[in-house]
């Protein structure tokens, strides 16, 4: 891709947060993004769960409250054409392995990538939908219940995200591996790159080459060879977008 980047993403840690209805905590930012792009209908991709119709019903209600119609990609005889005509795309949570495999099975990886990176179609991702927006699904929390042809994902951003990031509980007697330990093990691999651990109630807003952390919690950044670092909500994380996909380059990094 050449020229300026037109991607518009909201990469959300979770659609469900204690004390809020489904996506309620991020509804204002969603509304701003969709209104700016004159969106009236959102294409929902429910592949992370088995029951597509039930999942679609869950999603339609909160979007209807803020004035948007939601259509399920499974309702179309031609999923590729549905993406090509989409005004906005939302991929929700569930099992990341199931989701990615189904995206590959339906030959949707390249067409979604083109619509978002070339055409500027707004992309909303939550949990598994956030995982597949990144370089790969290596840092998902999900069990590998099925096997996609590759762990490579949509690559809308050049780094990985760990949604639902949780901190170790110093009062717990559980001696299993912490989320941080698992991410550090990933960083030992030669193919590893940065991983942003996003806690529930927070999200990453990406506009072109600009990335801002939003929400109520800090995020923890893991970079190979470096100590993990915390970033407050409102932090500029645009340096994570240094890549050739959208000709983004942070001269200070």
TrEMBL record:
Family: Belongs to the peptidase S51 family.
Major subcellular site: cytoplasm
Subcellular location(s) of the protein: Cytoplasm
Catalytic reactions on record: Dipeptidase E catalyzes the hydrolysis of dipeptides Asp-|-Xaa. It does not act on peptides with N-terminal Glu, Asn or Gln, nor does it cleave isoaspartyl peptides
Record GO biological process: proteolysis
InterPro entries per record: Class_I_gatase-like, Peptidase_S51
GO CC terms, sorted: cytoplasm
EC id: 3.4.13.21
Purpose: Hydrolyzes dipeptides containing N-terminal aspartate residues.
Organism for this UniProt entry: Oryctes borbonicus
Lineage: Eukaryota, Metazoa, Ecdysozoa, Arthropoda, Hexapoda
Keywords for this protein: Cytoplasm, Dipeptidase, Hydrolase, Protease, Serine protease
UniProt-recorded Gene Ontology molecular function terms: dipeptidase activity; serine-type peptidase activity
Name of the protein described by the UniProt record: dipeptidase E
Domain of life: Eukaryota
Pfam families linked to this entry: Peptidase_S51
